[in-house]
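Box 3.1 A note on notation
Throughout this textbook, protein chains are presented in two layers. The first layer is the amino acid sequence; the second is a token string describing backbone geometry. Keep the layers aligned when reading.
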Amino acid sequence: MSLRGAVIGFGKIAESTHVPALAAAGLEVVAVAEAVPARREAAARALPGVRVVADLEALLAGGGRLDFVDVCTPPHLHFAAAQAAAGAGLHVLCEKPLVTRSADGAALATLAERQAVVVACVHNWTQAPILVRAREIVHSGALGELREMDLETLRTQPAAVATDAGNWRIDPERAGGGILFDHGWHGMSILVRTVGAKPRAVSGRIEKRKFRELAVEDTAEVRLEFAGGARARFGATWAAAQRLNRCRIVCARGTIEIENDRLRWPGGEETFEESLAGGGYRPAWTAGIVLEFVTEIEKPALRGRALTEALTCLRLLVATYESAARGGAPITL
């Protein structure tokens, strides 16, 4: 039986990435909830025959079978939407960050367990083919134990124009933070999946390096210690001179290096079609997360994996801000 769902928030990320990703994974979108009239019109044009309403309350009251919702609103609205949907017995797929506060994450975990529903966050960068390949090499054991990992994201400005008042990424009340919450969710999920061990301590620093007028940080650095002794670093900035993504994974018998679309390791070299530093939307990456979401729904014994990963990312980022406020002091997890 095909899973039937609703998209909550029909902005650019929903239209260009989530809707095609859901379709690619075989899920059916039967409804959209969107507060902005112009975007409701866009939804009606893009999805003929789909029910379009103004809010989630109207959607849930409207009848008809729904199995899941896909939350694509700005971050400050994620918790309320996820809570309402999970409370109604629906599975929840949500854009990152899942929530912006620790208390909301704990409340959502309790609700998901009580309602026996899947809650998953779209950590779509973990599905980038170049990073999937790097994980395959690491987890094959061919290079021995992973010892260190360094991941860096360089950007020249926030994802939308920095001076645009409508850009939620520069509003701490809507975004949860600056670049640390924006790119840090990607970074933490990549590190946690690749290292494959529980983080046990985190430290970090944040700063305003270029966009000093902003209410959020434009640069962040996170350092992690994992069970088993592996260490990792994540750095991100909106203040760079160029767009660039790079990664270095040091294993006992060799090093893996990534720069944008190129992967090198002692056994060879590959160039990938998509660069990590490329612009635009990534429906194929998101489709990979959707398939994981479907697997958890269909196999109850696996439920909780995606939510645990998301709550780990939340804990790491919250602890990084705590560490930064204490001058970079390590926070034990």
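The longest strand covers residues 146-154. The chain has a mean pLDDT of 95.
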